[in-house]
Amino acid sequence: MSEYKKVRIKKGPKGWGGPLVIEPKPGRDLIYSVTGGGIHPVAAKIAELTGGKAFDGFKSKADFSEIAVAVIDCGGTARVGVYPMKKVFTVDVHPTSPAGPLMRFITEDLFVSGVRPEDIEVVS
Amino acid sequence: MVKYAAHITGIGPLLSEFAEAGILVFFGPNAPEELTEFAVIHDGQALAEPVVAGDVFALGDERYRLLAVGEVANQNLAALGHFIIKFNGATEPEMPGDICAEARSLPALAVGMRFQFSAHG
Q1: Any idea what the Cα angle at residue B3 is, between residues B28 and B15, rounded to 5°?
Q2: Mean pLDDT of chain A
Q3: Are the C-beta atoms of residues B79 and B63 closer than 8 Å to each other?
Q4: Is residue A118 one of the residues assigned to a domain?
Q5: B42 has catalytic annotation
Q6: Which residue has the higher pLDDT, A2 or A120?
Q7: End-to-end CA distance of chain B
Q8: Domains of chain B, earliest start first
Q9: How many domains does chain A have?
């Protein structure tokens, strides 16, 4: 009945964590790109495959409860921890490992890094 | 030569989580609210030239020599006004977004305080 598809996102080269299985749901279907320069290609690919809505977190506001997955281009310290702390699935396009003051929140079941578009596949 | 200059416009309520570890997180004015909780918010605009090791970071009346600049730090700064500066004395960035500076204590931060990156000299 759902118009959404499930994807499996695995870590890329030198990445950490995951794999994550992401399935948008009605009311929780934003692919939340918190990246420089607009919607990141990884977020665009997740949106395309799942039927979720690509969303630019630097342009508009959304509630955490609406976010299916956050895509970040974090260099390792801040964004990398903020979304896992809020229990939001988090995909970092840079190959970071848990570090920094928020590292206790960064866990394999919530976080995957080093992700490229080809690391995302539809699962049934 | 000044490469990037701004004034602090806001200080997140959870900034001390990072500041106590000698880390400051900066974001420009468009950052989503969840990121501003831990951060210094500022009104910075364009990055004139990439920041490199050897440059000076001025924060209020304090001056800190930069010792290392991670490979994505300039990209974050130019696109988002975002940077992470670790006052840890490290000469190699631990993370690709890190800017590392001399390990010295930080001034008390306040809205209106100026900061800038400039070339040494």
Answers
A1: 35
A2: 94
A3: no
A4: yes
A5: yes
A6: A120
A7: 8
A8: 2-118 (2.40.33.40)
A9: 1
- Contact assignment for B35 to A102 by CB distance below 8 Å: no
Q: Give residue A72's domain range.
A: 6-17+40-123
Sign of torsion over alpha carbons B53, B79, B76, A121: negative
ipTM of the complex: 0.80
Q: How far apart are CA B99 and CA B116, in angstroms?
A: 13
**Does B17 contact chain A (CB < 8 Å)?**
yes
For residue B98, the chain A residue with the least C-alpha distance is A75
**Given B7, B42, B82, B120, the catalytic residue:** B42
Q: Which of A39, A40, A58 to mutate to test the interface with B (most CBs of B within 10 A)?
A: A58
Locate the chain B residue with the closest alpha carbon to A74. Answer: B97
* Predicted confidence (pLDDT) per residue in B13-69, tens digit: 999 989 999 999 999 998 999 999 999 999 999 999 999 999 999 999 999 999 999
pTM summary value: 0.88
Please check whether residue A1 lies inside any domain of the structure: no
